[in-house]
Amino acid sequence: MKIVIPGGTGQVGTILARHFHAAGHAVTVLSRRARKAPWRVIEWDGQTLGAWVRELEGADALINLTGRIVNCRYNFRNRCEIWSSRSRSVRILERAIATSVTPPRVWLQASTATLYAHRFDAPNDEYTGIIGGTEASSPDKWRFSIDVARAWEGEFALAQTPKTRKVLLRSAMTMSPDRDGVFDYLLWLTRVGLGGKAGSGEQYVSWIHYIDFINAITFIINNEALDGAINIAAPNPIPNSDFMKRLRDAWGKRFSIPIHEWMLELGAIFLGTESELVLKSRRVTPGRLLDAGFTFQFPDWSEASADLCARWRSGTTV
Question: What are phi and psi of 239, to 5 degrees?
């Protein structure tokens, strides 16, 4: 296959590019800066047409992951960059596809499971899930990420691509043994004795093992019947307290200090991030993937965390 990945230099993009390249597919990453990689990396600015448009010609899949990282403080400047980087890339890709003689067969557009409501009572799937932003149990400052997700998906919904199937990827956290990724950070907390529950520990954690993430993306590319919004998450989200305990068990750590909410708020300021990333309850399940017959290799966190710990220790990423 011919795979084009705008914004494919982050953790998730690297996971996909590495996999598809190793499998013998032609991979092109669109990046704001040229860099060396085993696959092709082409420069683009994410907002204007250029020579990069030719890369879309005859592509089997366009996987747009463009967007400023959300692991930051939501000050005015960062909010503007988070918002504009996502919306502009969708608009310019729509224009690029319109110029293609043979446009991409499918456009997979990154979105986020954060779109769903902060809730504990029931899981959010694509059929009955509640879109967040109005629930009284969540702080007002959490609504920014939901507003961004709504705008992001709204731009994608407006994109006119009659010859290109469109899929929204409402993704949970992708867990891989790569250094500096989400799992690496959680494991570091565990190793140094800070891997206890965060806040009340009752908030749900949605996640997906990177092998299941890769397989789900491949499954969607090959399944012409799938379009629209699809949750990319393991089928069994669990409360944060259980999540961290199972990670401690997988690593062999008997005890860790719990992190109280005031500690998270203070730490977020010093680390330049937002406590929402830890405290919001993300109870998301992959209804459409399961209905389509997709099988998860790691549906439960106990097995997934044990596998990831073993891979982290050995340095295995592929």
Answer: -60, 150
Question: Rounded to an integer, what distance in angstroms lies between the CA atom of residue 20 and that of residue 161?
Answer: 25
Q: Is 261 helix (H, G, I), strand (E, B) or coil?
A: helix
Q: What are the CA-CA distances from residue 91 to residues 49, 152, 260 (Å)?
A: 11, 10, 42
Homologous superfamily of 2-314: NAD(P)-binding Rossmann-like Domain (3.40.50.720)
CB 224 within 8 A of CB 303: no
User: Which residues of 172-273 form beta strands (DSSP E)?
Assistant: 173-175, 204-205, 207-209, 228-232, 238-239
Is residue 186 within 8 A of residue 152, CB to CB? The reply is no
Mean pLDDT of 278-285: 89
Q: Which residue has tokens 């806040």?
A: 199
pLDDT digits (tens, 9 = 90+) for 176-205: 999 888 899 899 989 989 889 988 999 999
DSSP, res 14: H
Q: How far is CA 245 from CA 186, 253, 261, 301, in A?
A: 12, 9, 18, 10
Which DSSP symbol is given to 130?
A: P
Neighbours of 103 (CB within 10 A): 20
Q: How far apart are the two ends of the chain, measured CA to CA in Å? A: 19
Q: How far is CA 60 from CA 39, 43, 155, 220, in A?
A: 16, 20, 22, 12
Confidence bin at 264 (pLDDT 50/70/90):
confident
CA dihedral angle for residue 245, residue 250, residue 255, residue 256, rounded to 10 degrees:
-70
- The total of other beta-carbon atoms located within 10 Å of residue 138's CB is 19
295: left (phi over 0), alpha (psi -120 to 50) or beta: beta
